[in-house]
From TrEMBL:
Residue ranges constituting the Outer membrane protein beta-barrel domain according to the UniProt record: 33-194
Signal peptide segment: 1-20
Keyword field contains Transmembrane: no
UniProt name for this protein: Outer membrane protein beta-barrel domain-containing protein
Transmembrane segments: none
InterPro entries: Beta-barrel_OMP, OMP/PagP_B-barrel
Alphabetic keyword roster: Signal
Amino acid sequence: MFRFAVATAVLGLLSSPALAGNPVAPVIGAAPLMAPAAPVSDWTGIYAGVTLGTGRSDTSLGGYGIDVALDHDTRGLFLCYRHDVGAWVLGAELAYDQADVDGLGEPARYDLSVQAGYDAGRVLPYVALGVAKLELTPGDETGHFVGLGIDVKLTERVVLGAEARRTWFADDFLGVPGADMQADTLLMRLAFRF
């Protein structure tokens, strides 16, 4: 029994940390700091979509003292290419709209524009500049426009947007000397990226 007690005491002393060397507190380093990952969103690609719009056009018949204001609704299709270059997105767009203008029927409109926008992740505010061709019964009219818009990615392939656009048709609009027309349109846009 005495030998058992001595053997147990010796094993207990040999296994104690005091005999295992100098006791050193473990060094716990600070965890490496990791910057949060920036949201990755790329706007580069081909987009095809539909538009619905509403607005008002004001026509001035020059020296005749006649001003005509007409409401209009539009529906159309567009095809666009955008290229994401870091913080900026550049693009070009071709669009076709069919308008329903009070008293004038349904003239067709063709637009060609360039766009520049700021890449804010899933949101893209942009400005558009372009030319427009309006097909009317007396003859075609060519004008120019500026648009301010915002697109929001619902998914990486589906984009919902809105654009406010002002178009000017001047220089003898409808063949009337001194006549011009200005149209303001608010467009809702739904696009699919390929």
